[in-house]
Amino acid sequence: MEGSPDQRPSLFSPFKMGRFQLSHRVVLAPMTRCRALGGIPQPANVEYYVQRSTPGGFLITEGTLISPTAGGFPHCPGIYTKEQTDAWKKVVDAVHAKGSIIFCQLWHVGRASNQVYQPGGTSAPISSTDKPISGRWRILMPDGTYGRYPQPRRLSTAEIPEIVQHYRQAALNAIEAGFDGIEIHGAHGYLIDQFLKDGINDRTDAYGGPISNRCRFLYEIIHSVASAIGPDRVGIRISPAIDHLDAYDSNPLALGLAAIDRLNMIQRELGQHLAYLHVTQPRYTAYGQTESGQHGNEDEEGRMMRAWRGKYDGTFICSGGYTRELGLEAVEVGMQTWFHLVGFLYQTQIWWIGSKWTVP
Prior knowledge:
By secondary structure, the chain is α/β, with parallel strands linked by helices. The protein has helices spanning 43-51, 82-97, 160-176, 191-196, 211-214, 216-229, 252-270, 298-311, 324-332, 335-338, 347-356, and strands at residues 15-17, 20-22, 26-28, 58-65, 101-107, 126-127, 139-140, 146-147, 153-154, 181-186, 234-238, 276-280, 316-319, 341-344. The protein has one domain: Alpha-Beta Barrel (TIM Barrel), CATH 3.20.20.70. The chain is built from eleven helices and 14 strands. The strands form four sheets. Strands 3-4-5-10-11-12-13-14 form an eight-stranded parallel barrel, surrounded by four helices. Strands 1-2 form a two-stranded antiparallel sheet. The chain has a two-stranded parallel ribbon with strand order 6-9. Helix 1 (43-51) links the parallel strand 3 (26-28) and strand 4.
């Protein structure tokens, strides 16, 4: 099979994602790089994405901050000022020159921050709760040391529309910068996930309690952003079964189905499909470990992924510890009936794939 162009695996066959024609199904998944000095994309950011661009390829950027309160890592890029937006144009133009499609991942870390990353250097980070992340986790500080996560400030109900507006404006800025679309980061224990998971969300207002309430923040953000830039330019990433930064849920299967129900609802209301749903597989951990059984057995993982894929009406991206071998194996068991595109996180994985296959 290797070396025979007419027998290439489906991982390298074309795919139409809404308005976008992809030449293969290998996606560059988001990965924090900490290279945007002062929050401004640099020449190193341009080089990073250009190196990973192929004609008809699909790239999703590192998490990009939507507001001054959104950060929790050193030197992460933002897209809430004109200077940031203009700097991103250089990245986008260079990627487009190589023939790739690029989405900007919009990010707010919520309580996964520290006062030093907040405006003025003294404010508490915001969240759905006032419970801090436990001491088993550490935050990377600007000086390279590691510290504890502080107690966050619980957002009031009245403050939530302003956060939704920040996502909307960041999406508009991304389109102005030339991005083909955006991905809303609703996964991995960050702000949106802090509303979704019952292990964190202890609110008693319209944004807490039953699953329908915990999905409200996600729904409002996606609806607002999709209304502003068009549903087919909006992707969403969720991780219902991932326990990262104490973000766990008592029923991840039900949570994923409820979140997907809201996505399908938005598509019906706006009369157009979203660009995609991006789900991190349950086997994924923050440090790239992929052994089955860490978050439940392999059969349970497959059951959840198939249920979520079956529920969602649209393009489904799956990521989480994929190597070349795992990606090809996933294709062999039936990509079209499970998911459409495969996200790879690490540079070594991308180059290894490229060394064995010629991507069109």
